[in-house]
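Support reply, case 0932

Customer input (verbatim):
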Amino acid sequence: MTSISYMGEIQSHILASFGYDTIKGSSSRGGARVLAEMVRLVRRGRIGAFAVDGPKGPYREVKPGAIFVAKKLGVPVVPVSTSARPSVVLGSVWDRYLLPMPFSRTVVYLGEPMILDTDTSERSVEKDCQRIGRVLEELENRADAIIGRKGK
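Our regenerated output:
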């Protein structure tokens, strides 16, 4: 899923060059349609991917949408983090988008698949959001250490 924005359009083109399809939308713009489409595709065997801190942030705070979908569908969550050096962090956007420079060294760090229970109560989803947030922070730190990138 990518946002309906200039950055989302750039992401869509990059992902398409690697053979991925994208669904454009966000929780505030077409959210129900996007989630329904994501559910449909996952049920047909496709892999869904979300930026779990949502379209508006705050930065690095896991939102319940992806967690709720994973619980409903009974699919694991695979946490992913990246780092690159040299890179530029776009501080003008809420998510501090990391933009690798041409010919940079990059790393994509995949965590262990996380099997979630099927409890979709607000309390359970929130607990899993916090747990996944901790795992993502650890993966980001590992990715930065591997690549030798300093700072957030």
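We compared this against your earlier run and they match. Two observations from our side: The longest strand covers residues 97-110. Helices lie at 6-17, 31-43, 64-73, 122-147. Please reopen the case if you see a mismatch on your end.
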